[in-house]
Specification:
globular; 2 helices; alpha+beta; single chain; two-stranded antiparallel sheet; 60 residues
Length: 60
Amino acid sequence: MFKIIGFFLVLYVCYAAATGRVWAKAGIRAREILREESPRYFWGVVGIYAALSVALFFVF
């Protein structure tokens, strides 16, 4: 089950890196982070999602 979630998360990371848009939780809501507006925050979120997908594959 966790490997399937990890697979879809990898797909989302690739999609986000290709399009330059990613959604992240910000307080109660989620917000869209654009690579052009805040590149460090964008790549930080993408990196965290990528690390989570690796953990879903190998830890769980």
